[in-house]
TrEMBL record:
One of its GO terms (molecular function) is metal ion binding. GO terms for cellular component: Holliday junction resolvase complex; nucleus. It is an enzyme of class 3 (hydrolase). It is found in: Nucleus. Interacts with EME1 to form a DNA structure-specific endonuclease with substrate preference for branched DNA structures with a 5'-end at the branch nick. Typical substrates include 3'-flap structures, D-loops, replication forks and nicked Holliday junctions. May be required in mitosis for the processing of stalled or collapsed replication fork intermediates. May be required in meiosis for the repair of meiosis-specific double strand breaks subsequent to single-end invasion (SEI). Its main location: nucleus. Interacts with EME1. Its cofactor is Mg(2+). Belongs to the XPF family. Its EC number is 3.1.22.-. This is Crossover junction endonuclease MUS81. Keywords: DNA damage, DNA recombination, DNA repair, Endonuclease, Hydrolase, Magnesium, Metal-binding, Nuclease, Nucleus. One of its GO terms (biological process) is resolution of meiotic recombination intermediates.
Length: 179
């Protein structure tokens, strides 16, 4: 469950924030609660606490010593062990949060470049000497190296394409596009 406080429309990246909220709810299955400010957030937490207390006030832990209730520390440890993600998995999720970049494109990119640094080293480093804005890397040259990455096997040679490749490079490395 996520609780979002305040007006998402006033955020610097309002469209990205809205997209993330929709994705969390519709695609990832999370409940997204929205509040207008601190007072409504506190009221929401109070209401949720009362509900949990009402639902579980009669609950009793296991009586057998074999089934002892885990401590909060034990739960935290087991959750963190289950939810630890590799750099590759985190990078894949980050790529999917770029508007217009889905699982297929993100998957194709992380198969070739499993980390942001490997992407930089494999694509941007070679483009640094080319005609980039203010002497920096040229996104167009970097995107050229990405656009032909195949999306998968047996997909009739479909590739990432120039538009998505350029979008990825601009989003990840915030490099100004050459005019």
């Amino acid at each position: 469950m996520y609780l979002v406080e305040g007006d998402v429309d006033s955020h610097n990246n309002a469209q990205t924030a809205k997209t993330a909220l929709v994705r969390l709810g519709a695609q990832d299955g999370f409940t997204v609660l929205r509040t207008t400010g601190t007072n409504t957030t506190i009221a929401t937490y109070k209401s949720m606490t009362r509900t949990v207390e009402r639902l579980y006030s009669d609950a009793v832990g296991p009586t057998s010593s074999d089934l002892a209730c885990p401590t909060l520390g034990d739960l935290d440890l087991s959750i963190s062990e289950e939810r630890s993600l590799s750099v590759r998995e985190v990078f894949n999720v980050q790529l999917q949060h770029i508007p217009g970049i889905g699982k297929q494109v993100a998957g194709a990119l992380v198969r070739k470049f499993p980390t942001p640094m490997s992407l930089w080293n494999g694509v941007m480093r070679d483009a640094e000497g080319e005609e980039g804005g203010a002497g920096g890397p040229d996104v167009k040259s970097a995107a050229e190296k990405l656009k032909f990455i195949p999306l998968g096997e047996g997909l009739n040679y479909r590739t990432i394409g120039e538009t998505k490749a350029t979008k990825i490079m601009n989003f990840l490395f915030n490099v100004p596009q050459a005019l």
